[in-house]
Amino acid sequence: MARPSSFSPGDVPVSSPTERTEDSPVSGAAGLSTGEREIIAIFVQMTQALGAPRSLGEIYGLLFATPQPLAFQDIVERLEMSKGSVSQGLRSLRSIGAITPVVVAGDRREFFEPVVELRLLVTSFLRERINPQIEAWGTRAKGLKPAHFNLETFSATDRETLDGRLAKLKTWRKRAGVVFPVISKLLG
Question: Are residues 121 and 100 in contact, defined by beta-carbon separation less than 8 angstroms?
C-alpha cells in the first residue's frame, strides 16, 4: 500500500475499507470513513504508548470522531469488536474519566461521549492510574534499607552509591506529587 506523503516512518497506515493489514488502525470496522480511521489510529498509538490495550484507543477514537454520543451496541457494530472487549474498554475508559455517560431523550440505552479536554484527561489518568502506583512504590521504597542487600559483597564506594540511590528513590514519590499537578496545569 502506498503511503501518502504526510506519513512518516512509524505512522500507522490507513487501510481502505476492503483492505485489512496487521498494522491497520482498527481491527475490523469496514464501514468507517478515512477520517474516523485516522482519528482512531491516533488514539491507538497513544494508548499503546501508555501500555494500554489498543481496544481502548479504538473505542475512545471512535467516540472522539463521532459528533453524536454512541450506545454500547453502536460501538460493537461500528468497530466490529466483541461485546466483552467493548464492555471492558468502556469500563476502563470510565474509570479514568476519559468518557462520560449521557442521556439521549427517548432512548433508554446508555450512551457515551469522550472527555475532550486534555487537562481533564491527564489529571484523571494521573489520579486514577499513576498516583496509586506511585503511592505503592513510595511505600515499598520507604521500607528499603541498605541491610536488605548483600553489603558484604560491596566495596565502600558501592555501599555509598547504593545509599545515595536509596535516598534518591525515597524522594521521587514526593517530587512526583509536585510535578504531576504542574503538568496538569500546563496542559489546561
Answer: no
Residue 53 near residue 106, CB atoms below 8 Å: no
Number of domains composing the chain? 2
Q: Give the β-pairing of 70-71 and 107-114.
A: antiparallel
pLDDT of residue 21: 43
Calpha distance 161→170 (Å, rounded): 14
pLDDT in tens, 83-104: 999 999 999 999 988 999 999 9
Residue 129: domain span: 118-187
- Radius of gyration, CA atoms only, the chain: 22
Buried b (16+ CB within 10 A) or exposed e, 104-140: eeeeeeebbbbbeeeeebbbbbbeeeeeeebeeebee
Residue 110 and residue 123 in one domain: no
C-alpha cell at 173: 514519590
The answer to the question of residue 28 being in a domain is: no
Q: What are phi and psi of 108, to 5 degrees?
A: -85, -10
